[in-house]
Design brief:
There is one protein chain. The radius of gyration is 46 Å and the shape is rod-shaped. The model has no long low-confidence stretch (mean pLDDT about 80). It has one domain. By secondary structure, the protein is an all-alpha fold. Helix 1 packs antiparallel against helix 2.
């Protein structure tokens, strides 16, 4: 019978080469386990960052949608106001033309002499009407300027500045 190797005898410690190899494999396994834990932690951080990015993207898309809706509504209000102003301006032009026709008829002379006091009252009433229309036109113009300024201010506030957090 052949003598068993010293490393295989019961109660005999394995040789140093076996111990070194066993230590190396244990250290290698511990290093791999550590790297796997680091990899898992990185994957979790990446998933959290992805979730945060998706939430931010969704918030940004919602802000863009709301901004587009506000701009559309503001443009519609502005168009409506411009249409109202155009109609009012047309009415003013028509009224002024009618008054000029009436004035030219009076100046052109009529067959019957009119009461001078009545003519003065009519001319005065027409002049007051013109002034009222001019005041109305001025108010409409001021309102249009105010709407435009408000819209400009709203657009400036909606646009993120260079100091805004991204």
């Amino acid at each position: 019978m052949a003598a068993p190797a010293a490393g295989n005898l019961p109660g005999v410690f394995p040789d140093d080469r076996w111990n070194a190899r066993h230590r190396y494999l244990n250290e290698r396994e511990l290093a791999l386990d550590s790297r796997e834990r680091l990899l898992d932690a990185r994957e979790q951080r990446l998933a959290a960052v992805d979730d945060d990015l998706a939430a931010r993207r969704q918030g940004l898309e919602e802000r863009e949608r709301l901004l587009a809706e506000r701009e559309t509504a503001a443009e519609k209000r502005e168009r409506d106001a411009n249409e109202r102003e155009a109609r009012a301006d047309n009415r003013e032009v028509s009224a002024t033309a009618r008054e000029r026709v009436l004035d030219s008829r009076e100046v052109g002379g009529t067959a019957e002499p009119a009461d001078p006091v009545a003519r003065i009252k009519e001319a005065f009433a027409r002049e007051i009407s013109r002034l009222d229309r001019s005041d109305d036109f001025l108010e409409r113009s001021r309102a249009a300027v105010k709407r435009a300024q408000d819209r400009l201010d709203a657009l400036r506030q909606a646009r993120p500045g260079p100091d805004a957090e991204q």
